[in-house]
Amino acid sequence: MHSIHSICRSLACLALTSSPLWAQLAGPYSIAETPLVNQGGPIVIQASQGQKTTSDEVVPDAPRVITCNPGPWGKLEYYYVYLEAPSYLVDHFPMPSSKSRWIFTPAQESSLPSLLAETGLTAEQVEAVLNAPGKLSNADGVYLFPPPQLILDITPEVRSKLYAILRKIPANDYHVDPVLILNDDAEKWFANSELRPEIIDMIDKLSYKRGDLTAFSDLSLLMNLASGESEGRQILKAMTRTRSLILRTIINNHTEVDENMKYWTTGLNLRRKDVVPMLHSVIATQGVEKLDILHLLPALPRKLLYTYPDPSMGAEGIFPDCHWTSLNFFNYNAEPYLLDSRLATTKVLESFAQVDPPYRFGDVLFFLDTEHGDAFHSCIYVADDIVYCKNGRNLLSPWILSKLDDVKAIYLFDGNGRVQGFRNKKSTYAPAGE
């Protein structure tokens, strides 16, 4: 087992989100200059010019309220909601080229025929890729521009193997950081979005498996279906779609307010004087039995939850990430020094102790690299394996509530790490029986 000191090596969070495509967009703003034209030949699936419809008849995840497991947190329930980055943020970023590109390392150039064949591409497809116009080879890499129809013809199984190779090369932005569809159904994931059915069908056709999740990397090919820049922006916005959950506590005359509050205040009576009167008011109000868990959270996450970073949050030269989010959880005002990985490490070493499940409210769950113990992601345990997190250091990654299994599926898809809990040493709460 790695000790807490292994975190000293790295607190650099991988810039992944439930739409981790946007990791590469954390840099300076720029206005799109890429024309939306088909540069790579005809595509079989055609856009219907001027047609704008939505999949209103399809409701994401057939929305329903899910009851949580019982525990010291009281009675909880949740339902899913979908977030998209606001247009004023999306419009600051450049749109992708509509020409698909695969990049390999110079060392792979001589073995490309066999490497591509091993993924399951046919001999004809390998030849078509290697002989496609525009091929470029230099000291930075080998740039291939596969024909659009070839990309469409690749099976999901071959796509999964091929893109697993491409994602090992950082220059392949959309393969390293694909759009992740957590419900494995593109039609439901993008239901009620601004995307036309033809575009959603294209996403479904080009999707593949990355670990247990459905992924999509061919945004460049998708841009060929855009009728113009306006629709291109709609596509870009939809690609930021993230799933969060709304968590509610169920309160009635039988609710053990005092015992529940011990859990939600970590035994330190944090905000107890503010929250207890509110809970009793809910109990006393006829017809009101549920309260959004937002009201039980500390001040900072209460402010940030379900929102996207404001550009002004980059005033320190770097945007908040998962570790900043986790270590500032109980702070009334965010501590800017926690943007520095070295100082954040010091915070963990001085203020937290390693713990094993069952986790408690406010515990920091670090995702540690199996080989070196480096912390490449973190989130806050809330209750019943629901966590508070920000999946990526970028403007297009919001603060959300998520199931821990979903976060694991995003970050541990190739068996590259494990989760280790850390608890603030000041926490005194212990459930009955501990």
Offer a concise description of the structure.
The protein has 434 residues and is α+β, with helices and mostly antiparallel strands.
Considering the chains and any ligands shown, give keywords for the structure.
alpha+beta, 18% strand, single chain, disordered N terminus, 434 residues, six-stranded antiparallel sheet
Describe this structure in words.
Helix content is 27%, strand content 18%. The protein is α+β, with helices and mostly antiparallel strands and 434 residues long. The strands form four sheets. A six-stranded antiparallel β-sheet has the order 11-16-12-13-14-15. Strands 1-2-9-10 form a four-stranded antiparallel β-sheet, with no helix packed on it. Strands 3-5-4 form a three-stranded antiparallel β-sheet, with no helix packed on it. Helix 2 (112-118) crosses helix 3 (123-130). The chain is elongated.
Annotate the secondary structure layout:
Layout: E1 66-67, E2 75-83, H1 87-90, E3 102-104, H2 112-118, H3 123-130, E4 136-138, E5 141-144, H4 148-153, H5 156-166, H6 173-176, E6 179-181, H7 186-189, H8 197-205, E7 208-210, E8 213-216, H9 219-222, H10 229-238, E9 242-250, H11 257-264, H12 272-284, E10 290-292, H13 299-304, H14 322-327, H15 341-351, E11 352-355, E12 364-369, E13 375-383, E14 386-390, E15 399-403, H16 404-411, E16 417-424
Antiparallel strand pairs: 1-2, 2-9, 3-5, 4-5, 6-8, 7-8, 9-10, 11-16, 12-13, 12-16, 13-14, 14-15
